Model the fold of this input.
Amino acid sequence: MRYIFLKTINSTQDYLKEQLKIGNDNIVVRVENQVGGRGRVGRKWSSPIGGLWFSFDVEFMSDIIPLAVGVAVKNACEKVFNCKLLLKWPNDLILNGKKIAGILCEKVGDRVIVGVGVNTNIMKIEVENSISFFETTGKVIDNEKLMKNIIEEFFDLGNDKGKIINEFRKNMAFVGEEKYISAINKNAKIMGISDEGHLIVNDDGDNKEVFIGEILI
Ligand code: BTN
Done:
């Protein structure tokens, strides 16, 4: 892996897309801030100085890469901050009911660009239903180190589908609660995930499998 650190760019996702186009792969790019940070489903991602914003590219090995990254971010952050995090399907990190990190995986040819945003050393988050580690713990951490820990946790999980699904299941947020499910455009009870990593919800007594979208908080 080649590590690159930049000050301000549009989006680390777009940077890696350009690199892949010219044949450069196996790159990790971290930036101080992004002016065009992107979230899932076309949302903007606020990326001020202080947070951890990075992307890396890996070979596409399975559909559950997004879940694996979620587990990796959770494990690494819990060790550094000594706190308990939950995973909101498909891959948001939740602390005290609020979003503290997000993951965006984009497939480009036979590779996946994995983008990770963690609200670390940010004084005050201006985004609704979101929170930062600094706001909660008062701790300022080394973003470079946390990033390396996340990548290490990710590669340690490897392609162990059973382990990834199991760890996700054990730490899933909002299980048993009624939440708005974007794919079906209504509230349903969160039941868990299938062995394939799909969301299972109960909608008026029927269990349904959800493949896309997310749980809204
Ligand atoms: C989400 O929760 O919607 C996903 C957020 C992903 C944000 C990260 S920050 C680094 C990388 N570059 C981007 O433009 N987005 C991802």
About this structure: The helical segments are 12-21, 65-81, 133-137, 143-157, 161-170. The pocket of biotin is lined by residues 11-13, 34, 37-40, 43, 45, 47, 53-55, 92, 102-104, 115-117 (CB under 6 Å). The CA atoms of residues 63 and 208 lie 19 Å apart. The longest helix spans residues 65-81.
